[in-house]
């Protein structure tokens, strides 16, 4: 598993998560070293959007988010996944699949993922993020059902 963050201004480094991601690991390996500095670089209007797996919603993580004064976008449980990062993962997958032959091992796969992550144009990411309003409008219009996104 890899983790990465995007905004209209920057991308975090792509982080390889080895093993199971717990709330403590999420806080220590992702939030503290990657998310908080990225949000600080963006500025006081930055909003952190993550999703609802248990490690992201643990008591320790929620406390850390509050103490770090992270402005977190709240998502209701069982909501449709409108997060633009999902489309970034699709793009990353398409880019890696263009390599032939397939990666020989995990190390090569991680190398290609990082290379392609770094190569995704900022304009592509900005388009994803700027589509959030329309994603939400369509989701509401379809009562939370399937949308073109």
TrEMBL record:
MF terms in GO: nucleic acid binding
Span of domain Tc1-like transposase DDE: 28-100
Matches recorded under InterPro entries: RNaseH_sf, Tc1-like_DDE_dom
Highest taxon in the source lineage: Eukaryota
Protein name (Swiss-Prot/TrEMBL): Tc1-like transposase DDE domain-containing protein
């Amino acid at each position: 598993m890899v983790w990465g963050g995007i905004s209209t201004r920057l991308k975090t480094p792509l982080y390889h998560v080895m093993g199971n991601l717990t709330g403590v690991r999420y806080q220590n390996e992702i939030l503290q070293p990657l998310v908080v500095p990225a949000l600080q670089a963006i500025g006081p209007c930055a909003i952190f959007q993550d999703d609802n797996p248990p490690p992201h919603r643990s008591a320790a993580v929620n406390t850390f988010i509050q103490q770090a004064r992270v402005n977190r976008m709240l998502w209701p449980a069982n909501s449709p996944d409108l997060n633009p990062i999902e489309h970034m993962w699709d793009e990353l997958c398409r880019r890696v699949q263009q390599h032939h032959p397939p990666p020989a091992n995990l190390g090569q796969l991680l190398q290609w993922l990082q290379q392609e992550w770094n190569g995704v144009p900022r304009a592509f990411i900005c388009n994803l993020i700027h589509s959030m309003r329309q994603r939400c409008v369509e989701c509401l219009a379809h009562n939370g059902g399937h949308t073109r996104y």
